[in-house]
Each structure stands twice: as structure tokens, then as C-alpha cells.
Amino acid sequence: MADVANAPPAVALADATLPLLHEVFGYEAFRGPQRSIVEHVCAGGDALVLMPTGGGKSLCYQLPAIARHRAGRGVTLVVSPLIALMHDQVGALEELGVHAAFLNSTLESDEARQIERELLAGRLVLLYAAPERILTPRFLAMLDSLHERGLLSLVAIDEAHCVSQWGHDFREEYLGLSQLHERFADVPRIALTATADAHTRADIVQRLALAGARPFVSSFDRPNIRYTIVEKDDARAQLRRFMEDEHAGDAGIVYCQSRKKVEETAAWLCTLGIDALPYHAGLDASVRRQHQDRFLREDGIVMVATIAFGMGIDKPDVRFVAHLDLPKNIEGYYQETGRAGRDGAPADAWMTYGLADVVNQRRMIDDSVAGDDFKRIQRGKLDALLALAESHDCRRARLLAYFGEPYGGPDVVSDAQGPPLRAAPARGAASEAGVGVRCGNCDNCLNPPRTWDATEAARKALSCIYRFGQHSGIGFGVGHLIDVLRGKRSDKTAQHGHETLSTFGVGAELSEAQWRGVLRQLLALGHVRTEGEFNTLQLAASARAVLRGEVAIVLREARAPTPKRRRGYARARDAVLADRALSEAAEARFLALRQWRSAVAREHNLPAYVVFHDTTLLQMAQRAPATLDTLALVSGVGAKKLDAYGEAILRVLREATEPAG
Ligand code: ADP
Ligand code: ZN
């Protein structure tokens, strides 16, 4: 077979990428590094793409697949672990007029045979399959046949981090994928992942034999996501206020730690009239599939889930991700919150966090059966997350610093220019670069918290814990400690003789909530530990320095609830329309278009966003094009969709504009 990488036609292919972007996808411009990636892969180069969720990874292999197929190079094989999502991914391509299919266990055998025929005839542009299927002798034989005839164009390995044991998405079958390279050494490969850390990346390079691949590393900033972390007071009431004030009618995800809490929270949200569904690994596979399907297909569903939910969910219009419990580490927080706002419109990452979260997460590490080294790593990671939760400065800068990415402020990494290419991030090299900058889109930047000096209070609490040990020989929990500090008499204070301690009542000037804040911070910083079934408090070695007054403890003041903000949908809408409110007429057009879209989506058995994104409908509603030529200029309207839906859309727009009757 010819050396694809050096053949002149391949270079010509790379030149044709922009017209294809316009024609097939209907997008105006490439995003960030998409253009260099697409050109590199079109020309036959291997690539390793590290791009955040929502960065636009699919286009990086789909467009080269189309270009190379048109040039007679045959099919692109897409390796994906996400069988449940293949149907919609393929549906989205067919909507764009790109001939694609999947082969997996959900197909009837005659359907599968029909697809195999399309494949072997070289008609398919993209074929999706899971690794366990690809590595069967039968499948490999089909690939051999294509390859012999020069019809195996490209191999795209999606969710490439599944090859790494480091993360929690490890799939054994991914390890077998290196066979593809050994067998088809001249076929270019592109591996893609949204996992940023250096360890995972090294695993991908090594295990998939991608040492020669060109790495493309994007900024991991998600400028449209607003980060907010609130102190837990009454978590349900706080969640309710957040959802009702800012996200009524929006699709979102609420993460909880346990299956039980998932079920209870979903049931409670339903009593509030919110369309909430539970999702966790303990539910039947069929129930999980059904709930996932409804979340993807219907508007405004709230998924209440454990971390079992989310990988590969490419619903672009998730407007918020809420955490009722603390995730395990910053990697988890970033991955879970990253599922919001893939369409680039404003979205929220919101979390409540309190003393019990700190205690529970520390407990889970201590009680796990893992080895000491592993526990030490887990503790370090939890500490980093706690520091983020307790921080008074820009959350975004801290988040990015954790992944080794300096943050230059909102104007440096802007949406319009796309993220700059830069060297690979070194995970955990928590450089302070960028800390101090304001992003303008996190709680601490929007509403800088007032702080108070809690050093004295911390010393009182620590010395009281110390006295407990001296006096009673045992430790006590947070509630009792606060009673003693505030001089509140109880059976327990009397029984243990704690009313005579010198620390009894030394902290009466602080409220119970303030004391909980002090203790949360002491636990978060590791100056205090909890022990045993009753979470009794013990001093850690580092408490000494605090007691001596060598360490300042600064706490944020409890905040009054923030005033009502614009609803998520309204905010998203404003952003798309450059801060101009939709006129009444445009609003009517938008609603009519949405209705039309649901009907089409139902008819095609696809999620609505596969037909058109909200952002595309909003543009149509605002510009109200009257001809096919002007409709074609709306972002997201490619040739095939214009052809299939153009006339219908113009009619909907006309009817919604004309006065009824
Ligand atoms: P990822 O897989 O990286 O999370 P996707 O490939 O799902 O991201 O893309 C995220 C969203 O951005 C999708 O809805 C996609 O249609 C859209 N998108 C991708 N590239 C572009 C582009 N160049 N212009 C406009 N929209 C784009
Ligand atoms: Zn900020």
C-alpha cells in the first residue's frame, strides 16, 4: 500500500478541511487546536488529543474521516467503550449526511450483516465498535480485507484514558488495542481523551504504542462554567433555592455519594415538581438505560446520580451540575462538573460542602483496605480538593493550577480565539502561577468573600480538645466540643465534669455555625483528626504550631444567600444573543422551532440536540431568515440539514412571525 503520510494527495486533503467544516457541519470556524489536529490527521499523521469535555473532540476524527473517505481511502474505525451511546452518535452523523454505523450486541444479526456488507464495500465513512468486538477474529478478518484493498483509512480511539489503570474508567479490553497498530502499521491513528493528568497520558502513549504520535494539548479551562462552592447549612434547602432560582426547567445532574441518597434525593425533587430520575450502579441495567435515554432525549430532566453516571454523555445542554457530597478529589470534581455546558453557553458547577463531608471523606480513606502508599496519595488528593473548597480566591485559577496550567485571566484564554496550545501539564505540580488572577466567573471572583481572623478561636478549640484528653482520657465529638466552648450546659457536660474546665464558655461570643466553620477548617487543614465510630476529635501533630500562634487561620464569613440571579436558560439565551433579550416575536419563534424540533427528534428516534442545538435554534429565532441562503449562514446548519429541513424551518419561522388568523 502507498505511504499515505507522504503521498501528495494527502496534503491536498489537509487544504480542504475548512470547506468541509462549512459544508458538512455548518460551523463557521475551527475551535482552538481543531484545525491543526484535523490537518495533521488528514495528512496521515498519528495524534494524541487531550482536550477538555466540550472542546470538540469528535470533529477531530470525524472531519478527517470524511475527507479521507471522499479521497477514496475508505472507512474510519472508531473505538469506543460506550455501546449505549453509539446509536445516537451514529444518528448524529447520519443527520449530517455522513454514512456511519455501529456494530455491537444491541443489533439483530441481519442488521449486523447488512452493516458488514456496507463496510466491506467501502461505503461506510465511520464505523463505531467496542474494543472487545474489534478484537474478535471475525472482526479482524474484515479489517484485514479492507486493509488489503487500501480501504482502512484511520483508527480513532475515543476515551483513550480507558487504557490506564490509574483512573477509574479502566477497561481491560483497551489493552488489546495495540494489536491494531501491529497489524495495520501504516494506518494512521488518533487517540482522544478529556483526562488531563500526566500519568494517564504516559499510560496511553505506552500502552497504545503512540510514542510517535503528535500530542495536542488544549487548555483545560472551561470559561462558560461558573464555579460555586457554598457552606453546607441545610443542603436540601440550598439545592432547592439554587435550582428554583437559577435553573427552573433546565437539564442538570445532581451528584450524591451513596445509592440511598441518590434515591431519596430524586424522590424528594419529584415532590417539588421537578422531573428527577435516579441513576446508580445498583439499579437494573434496563432501568439505567431507560433513565439515561430520557435524560438525553427529553428537555429539562434532572439526573440524580452517583459517579457511575456520566462518562461519554455528550448531551450539550446540561445547564448545571450540583454536588450534594464532596467528590473524592479534584480530578473527580473537574470531570463531573465538566459535563455541564458542552455547548459553550453559560452553565453552573455548584457544590455544598460542610464539616461532615470532610470527616466522611477522610474516614473512607482511613477505613479502606488499600495499602499505605495508596492511602497517602488519596489523602494528598483530598487535601487539594479541601483547599479548593476553603479557598477565598479564584476557584478557576486554583483548579487549573492543580493540573499544572497557569491561568492568565479571562482575556488570555478566550472563547473566541480558542485555548492556546501548550506543553503537557504536570499533574499535582500545584504551581501558584495564575493564583491571584480573577476569572470573573466563579463565586469568589463575583462576590469576594469577607474573611475573619479565626486564629484565636482555633487555639481555643484546640486547647479544649487537649483538655478533654487530659481530663477525661478520651476524645469527644464536634457537638460536645462546641457546647463546652460556648458554655452550654448539658447532661454530658455535667456527667464528664467539663463545666469546670478552663475552656468552658471561652467561646460564647461565636455562634454554633461559626464554631463549625472553625472546626471544618481545622479538619480540612489536617490540624485535627477524627477517630472511631463516634468521630471523636484528636489533635494532629501540626496542631502544636497553631496552638503556639504560629499559623494564622482565616475563615470566610458565612454569607447571606445570594440574591436571585437570572435563570440558567435565560442566562444561556442572553449569552447567545450578545446580551440582548429576545424580543417577544423572537421568543415565539424560538418556542415554535423547539416544538418542531421535538417532533422531528421523536420521528427519527434521536435526542433533540442531534437535530439542532438550542444555540442554533436561538440564532434562527433571532435572525428570522426568510430564504435558504440566509438560513445556511446560521452556525450548525450544514448542507444536508439545510436540504432536509430548510423549507420546514422557514415555514415555522413564517408562521410564528405572522399574526395568527
Ligand atoms: P467533546 O467530545 O470534546 O466533549 P464534542 O465533540 O461533543 O466535545 O463537541 C462539543 C460540542 O461543540 C458539540 O455539540 C459540537 O457540535 C460543538 N462543536 C465542536 N466543534 C465546533 C466548532 N468548530 N464550531 C462550533 N461548534 C462546535
Ligand atoms: Zn474566579
List the helices and strands and how they pair.
Blueprint: H1 8-15, H2 17-25, H3 34-42, E1 47-50, H4 57-70, E2 75-79, H5 83-95, E3 100-103, H6 109-120, E4 126-129, H7 131-134, H8 137-148, E5 152-157, H9 178-183, E6 189-193, H10 198-207, E7 214-217, E8 225-231, H11 235-246, E9 252-255, H12 259-271, E10 276-279, H13 285-297, E11 302-305, E12 320-323, H14 330-337, E13 347-353, H15 355-367, H16 372-390, H17 395-402, H18 443-446, E14 451-453, H19 455-472, H20 478-486, H21 491-495, H22 512-524, E15 528-531, E16 536-539, H23 543-547, E17 554-556, H24 568-576, H25 584-604, H26 608-611, H27 614-623, H28 628-631, H29 639-657
Bound molecules: adenosine-5'-diphosphate (ADP) and zinc ion.
**What Rg do the Cα atoms give?**
28 Å
Average pLDDT works out at: 88
Bound molecules: adenosine-5'-diphosphate, zinc ion
Which class of secondary structure composition applies to the elements? alpha/beta
The major β-sheet equals: 7 strands, parallel
Distance between the termini: 66 Å
Assess the beta-strand content as a share of residues. Answer: 5-15%
The count of β-strands is 17
Report helical residue fraction: 40-55%
Residue windows where pLDDT falls under 50 for at least 5 positions: 1-8, 413-433
The helix tally amounts to: 29
The geometry reads as globular
Lateral strand order in the biggest sheet: 3-4-2-5-6-1-7
